[in-house]
Amino acid sequence: MSLVTIANTGEVISNQLYLINFIDDFHYNLLNKEDKINYILNFDLNKFPTFLREDLVNIEAEQELEKYRLKFFPELPSRCGAQFAFEKLTDLLTAAKMYGWKGTIYKISIDTSKDYTLSKHNADIISEIRNSDFKSISNTLNDYWTGDIKWAKCHDRDLHFLPTTEYLIEGSINIIETLDKAI
Phi and psi (nearest 5°) for 104? Predict the structure, then answer.
């Protein structure tokens, strides 16, 4: 199996990842990356019904992430237009539960014969951003985009865990295998 380089960390990993084919309107109704980015950045939060607060928080978080990426990390894939992939199937399943994703799961590789950008991120940070007040999260946003994944301490015990690691892919992929497991 070939290797691929991660843009934001410089790491080299095996070119075999897991991806979920989303079953939702946002990922399929808009045709290109720029349309998706513009949709998120120009979404009028004041016109959004407050009884849908959870959805509003998710949109606010994506706006903050995208604004920060455009300002400090424009070379990295946008969460609005990228494909989300995972090195481990368990991380994909954890993220699917965290984000409420539904779809078919594939084992994939990145088509390295074409231009691609791959970035690595701590998916658990998304929950921190969504639960923030959006006023003092620049360090958290920076941590997400730099991709520095560290073992985290579990509460006040001496247990440590590796956060859920997601990869954003901008480029073409090859499907190696369709897993029987759809979520």
Answer: -95, 145
Buried b / exposed e over 103-131, threshold 16 CB at 10 Å, is eebbbbbbebeeebbbbbbbbbbbeebbe
What residue spans define the domains of the chain? 3-16+23-147+164-182
- Rg of the chain over CA atoms, in angstroms? 16
- Residue 39 or residue 10, greater confidence: 10
pLDDT of residue 160: 44
Q: What is the mean pLDDT of the chain?
A: 83
Residue 28 pLDDT grade (very low, low, confident, very high; cuts 50, 70, 90): very low
The answer on pLDDT for 51 being more than 90 is: no
Please answer whether residues 82 and 170 qualify as being in contact, where contact means their C-beta atoms are separated by less than 8 angstroms. yes
- What the block records as the tokens of 82 is 């990228």
Mean pLDDT of 77-94: 91
Residues in the chain: 183
* Cβ 87 vs Cβ 13: under 8 Å: yes
